[in-house]
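ok so I'm stuck.
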Amino acid sequence: MRRRESLTLDMTPLVDVVFLLLIFFLVTSVFKKEELALLLNLPHGKEGGKMVEKKSAVIEMGKTRIAMDDEVVTFAQLDEKLSGLKDKTMPIVVRIDEHVEYGRIIRLFDLLKKHGLGNLALVEKPKGGQ
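replied:
not stuck anymore, here's the structure
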């Protein structure tokens, strides 16, 4: 009488394939970063603000550069972009570096006022944040 060999499935190749797929997806995936065009050093605030929830335009101002919606622009280009905004009640999120000259901030606010955009949200550094 012959003895039957039990059939077993070799799991080693399956484990190798799973690990290769895991590595492939980790290497090829793109992790979403905070979408900022300029590296800013935001000032601290005493009270925490609320987040803007509906669609908004984001303006970032550094010491020498200014950006709108992740695109570095000049003040003239910013003027054109602001004139093209249809919804004047749309929130404008403004991120200003704490070392920006006061005159540049006033120039930005004058530009916003010129186009009737007054729904501003000034962003500060979060509590305990860097």
